[in-house]
Design a protein that fits this description.
about 110 residues; alpha+beta; 4 helices; elongated
């Protein structure tokens, strides 16, 4: 689950849908615990590792991620060049005005082989 403050919800949904269609298992954390158990693991522990960016600069995780996922959506034809630029301009503006917000959770699974 990504939280991002964009003024263009429709474009945002298209971009993230294209991302989900690109990665092998976008919802893997939902299934990984059971998959580990079914393959002989026990003592499964899950730790959330959030990434929070409140600045939109090139040294922030979200800046690189957004660049990739936006280009991916354009390449897949789910957004137009105009939507591509409009969405990125909105994020640039939010970054410059101090109104940028991005958060995503990653999950660290650890387990022991039974």
């Amino acid at each position: 689950g990504v939280v991002i403050n964009s003024d263009y919800d429709s474009i945002t949904r298209k971009i993230f849908s294209a991302w989900d269609a690109t990665v092998p298992s976008p919802n893997l954390p939902v299934f990984l615990g059971k998959l580990l158990v079914n393959n002989g693991f026990c003592k499964i522990d899950v730790e959330p590792i959030p990434i929070l960016n409140t600045e939109y600069t090139s040294n922030q995780f979200s800046h690189g991620m957004i660049s990739w996922i936006t280009k991916n959506a354009l390449k897949r034809g789910v957004i137009t060049k105009e939507q591509f630029q409009k969405w990125l301009d909105d994020l640039d503006e939010k970054g410059e005005s101090g109104n940028y917000f991005f958060c995503v959770n990653r999950f660290l699974f650890s387990a022991k082989l039974a």
